[in-house]
Amino acid sequence: IIAESGGQAERLLDMLRVIQNRYRFIPAAAIDQLADTLNVSRSQIIAVVEFYSFFHLNAQGRYDILFSDSITDRMLGKTELLEYLANLLHVKVGEVRADGLVSLNNTSCTGLCDQGPAALINGLAVSALDCAKLTEIAGLIEQQIPLSEWPESLFAVADNIRKPGLLLQTPITNGAALQAAFARGLPTTLTELERSGLRGRGGAGFKTALKWRLCAEADSDQHFVVCNADEGEPGTFKDRVLLNSQAHQVFEGMTLCAAIIGAKQGFLYLRGEYQFLYDKLQQVLQQRRQQGLLGDNILNQHFDFDIQIRLGAGAYICGEESALIESLEGKPGIPRNRPPYPVIQGYLGKPTVVNNVETFLAAAAIAVHGADWFTAAGTEKSAGSKILSISGDCGLPGIYEYPFGSTIREILADCQAQDVLGVQVGGPSGVFISDQELDRKLAFEDLASGGSFMIFNQSRNIFAIVQNFSHFFAHESCGFCTPCRVGTALLKQQFDKIVNGYGSAGDVAELEALCRLVKNYSHCGLGQTAANPIISTLERYPELYQAQLKNISYEPGFDLDAALAVARRMAHRDDPAAHLLQVEE
Ligand code: SF4
Fold first, then answer.
1. Total structural domains within the chain
2. CA of 479, closest atom in ligand 1
3. 388 lines ligand 1 (CB under 6 A)
4. Angstrom distance (rounded) from CA 446 to CA 435
5. Residue 357 and residue 266 in one domain
6. Residue 477, C-beta contacts closer than 8 angstroms, at least 6 positions apart
7. Are residues 299 and 444 in the same domain?
8. Is the pTM of this model over 0.90?
9. What is the ipTM of this complex?
10. Is residue 580 part of a domain?
């Protein structure tokens, strides 16, 4: 396994994945061998194993099932289906069955919200689950049929492209962007990209041409290009579709970037949940090598460049660019201090461009069609279009592309959403907008979004939504800095207390103070946005929070009287005076 990965410590995640697949956990002997061979300490390897949720120090079942726990999966009946399967297979959630055949658990959003409820079985996605499908799956497991012999239909994943726009309607032909760029000249192509106003599509919106220019101008013997395909924001799945249907163009955008910044090596960091795309993407890379669009002397321009695909292992934080680079280097994905920014010191300390899948797709299109074509759509500050992943309460969930400046109302009409309570724009780290704000616009100057667009109708409970998001952040905090590690856990606890009916006015004040603390003092974007679901719903629905509260200044977060029952038994005292109720009276 080590030899297949070239014996490089940076490939540690690849090695661990193969070991995990083979043994169902990472045995101590494997850790020792990796440590000796890679010259990395044993504790460092254990730190990596413990950091990523797809690696385990204890054996999982031969069939390891992880149910996607996104709010939209829950809205589609995930909780009941999980229980149904647990009963069928006689296994408890979070446990391995005694015979070792199967284990069952939850995982964060798997990027299949347009066709949920979804799950991963030994890393492979199964979607649109219902009782019939789960009964079939349980039967295959009990018969111990290898996954490779299961009906292909079980693993079908649809693209669901509902509304193609600027980019999806006009895919480029292979090599067109590179040919156009070399014909125009690389410096002029970068100027064209600058003129297009393209901004990063991951959500932050940094100017793409400026990023490329800063990296190109950074003095170094090596430069790198990284495509961030770790779209872990719940409700986002557009990169899954782009990589399935337009991978050539994404790789072409990466190659264009490499030509401009002087990189010889690129990486596609693919989220572990999209393992089912891995072989197909490798085939696309191979085709491009055969077409002379990757490898040595690309298009006879004395330009060498190739791309490796690296799989993540279930850590949302690796979507943050510096955490992603740490992960690429075979370490836990803990965000770095910035500055220095990756364009100056990125992968292996060398200048590195990290861009989202959609950004590379757009860059390739701009190289072919020009800046004017791109700026003809969108607004002054947000040129071009945005690809959205639409899920939740609507008739047609899927992929939609809109020119920036489109209103939320227009989008809701297209996807057949009715009786809308609100929309979570940009995923849990984004903002919840109410039905009073439907004329707001999709644009960096109004509602910026990485692409997640979750719709909730009037039958939904705001608290259930926010609770799901709060639990998500507490689970995904990487634990590096105290405001986020402790703060997200406290937010979750405090919010649960209110949802469970133990909240008081004092608790809401404390919740608001906690939100400010986590937002202002956390090290990276995860912590800085973790309180957004609470802040945005508190602002919009103060009356709902008030209605949920008890009219006293303090209430414990649990049933204190019941909790003291054990102590009362031990003290042989269970008379009325021993109960808290008596104190209140
Ligand atoms: Fe890690 Fe959270 Fe701190 Fe970011 S804010 S470094 S995710 S603990």
1. 5
2. 8
3. no
4. 16
5. yes
6. 317, 484, 485, 488, 489, 526, 527, 530
7. no
8. yes
9. 0.99
10. no
